[in-house]
Amino acid sequence: MKPIKQFRRVGSRIPLRFTIWLYFVLFTVAVFALIWVFQIFFFEKFYEKMRIQSTAASMDSIAEIYNSADRQKNYETVLEILSDDEEKEKLYAAVKDTGDAEDLCVEVLDKYGREMMKKHVMGECIIHDRGINSGVLLNSIDDSENGVIIKKVKHPRNGSYMLVYGCALGDPKAPDGYLLLNAALVPVGATVKIIKSQLMTITIILIVLAFIISLYLSKRISAPIDRITKSAEILAKGDFNTKFDGRGYLEAKKLADTLTYAEKELSKVDTMQRDLIANVSHDLRTPLTMLKAYAEMIRDLSGDNPVKRNEHLEIIISETDRLALLVNDMLDLSKLESGKQKLNPTEFGISAKLGEIMDRFRGLSEKNGYHIHFTPDEERMVYCDVVKIEQVIYNLINNAINYTGEDKQVFVRQINTEDGVLVEVEDTGDGIEEDKIKLIFDKYYRSENHKREVVGTGLGLSIVKAVLKMHNYDYGVRSTLGKGSTFWFKISNLEKK
Which residues have C-beta within 8 Å of that of residue 348, sequence separation ≥ 6? Predict the structure, then answer.
């Protein structure tokens, strides 16, 4: 067998090891780039947004407690609610808990702007310390559409930025009171510098670790592929004894197992192909030798003797027929396997066709002592390629003649079934070993269990297989050692579709 050609795709010469390492490093760099973008450049915006959402939620929870009391008991002012010990306790608990939990300064005012309740958390609170005019805030609340305001203001003394929330208690158009919240916006500049310094250190350490780990992983992942590739290159040169080592991971092992199986199959094909070449060479050499020998005999000895000359010419014609049979079988099989031959189905009676074929074999039976027994069933019309089905039956009968026992008995049976017609051809030879049955239809295989010179090339059963596959018919063989074999196929097309 010629070495298998190696195909290389342009642009795919980058080593797998380098590709894995590069992807791993690029992934790591991309992850850290995202971390830098979100943690450094958008940190302040994220912080401010989250602080606003948290403060708004705290304001809503306190306002909801007041509004709930207002709806249930029809209080008209904050002072009236605070005169109810139960409601005062609820509101004070909400103010205190919110201030402690959220680091908020909270203040509850009546509708005249007088302080009724507060929770002081921060050292400098812009509301409690009157860093901002409360009257301005209350007017802003009254002027707002929904009775809620939010302002980002700068403390007049320390210069820090703070969030101021305010909302009307009760009806926004005629408030019973007001709720003010003050949340500090901690300067994030220094925080960003600290995070940036730490992030830089972590990034350098992790990129170095990623570099080392990726080198190790790429080497570990690519090592089985490298070993398998080297073995495949040896296999491509025609060495069918190479070993495929897929240790490392499951996919590599599966690939190695697949290539090992392919190696075994290629080895079988190579052996069978050599056997076929040897068989064909032998089949060619014998008739060619005979042709040359008898042609020389006609030239030198029997040219003037009509009886001898005719005898020698008959042998030459017979040997020429053997050569033609060999060439035709090889051409037929090549066309069938390449798909160049197409089916030409017609409708005919299978019982009549089998009887016609038996009549043609009658001369061989009488001349060489074979006994071909035909058991027909009722006539059944079938729809298939009559020429190719004839070829199948001829090859099966010839195969049975070649391998039948010393009694030279061959049995052909037609068995009608509900869904088709079963055709069986049985011989009384030595049979086929069970492990060889699966090879019997292979074009490179020829059984050794025969007692006479085999007529043909060993391609008959391969032609049978190709024709039946074209028709999509079931076929097979049953065999018992010492008792013979039965080859069968089933015609399933009974009428034109």
Answer: 381, 382, 386
What confidence score (pLDDT) does residue 421 get?
A: 94
376 and 301, same structural domain? no
- Rounded Cα distance between 243 and 46, Å, is 60
Domain boundary among 168, 190, 212: 190
Residue among 242, 245, 288 nearest 267 (CA)? 242
Q: How far apart are CA 411 and CA 462, in angstroms?
A: 21
Tens of pLDDT, residue by residue over 258-311, are 877 777 777 777 776 776 676 667 667 767 777 787 788 787 777 677 788 788
CA distance 340 to 328: 15
Question: Which residue is listed with tokens 């109810």?
Answer: 84
Which of the listed residues 302, 336, 370 is the one where a domain comes to its end?
336
Taking residue 292's Cβ as centre, other Cβ atoms within 10 Å add up to: 12
Q: How many other β-carbons are positioned within 10 Å of the β-carbon of residue 38?
A: 11
Q: Is 201 exposed, middle or buried (0-12, 13-18, 19+ CB in 10 A)?
A: exposed
pLDDT tens digits along 124-157: 676 666 656 777 788 888 888 888 888 887 777 6
Supply the range of the domain harboring residue 262: 250-336
The answer to whether residues 429 and 353 belong to one domain is: yes
CA atoms within 13 A on the CB side of 155: 21
Which has the closest alpha carbon to 431: 369, 370, 486, 488?
Answer: 486
Are 70 and 148 members of one domain?
Answer: yes
The pair of three-digit structure tokens given for residue 386, joined into one six-digit string? 């009559």
Helix (H) or strand (E) holding 22: helix 16-36
Strand, helix or coil at 393? helix
403/186 Cα distance (integer angstroms) = 100
Cβ count near 300 (within 10 Å): 8
Residues 6+ apart with CB under 8 A from 297: 312
pLDDT of residue 416: 93
User: How high is the pLDDT of residue 428?
Assistant: 92
CA 165 to chain centre: 58
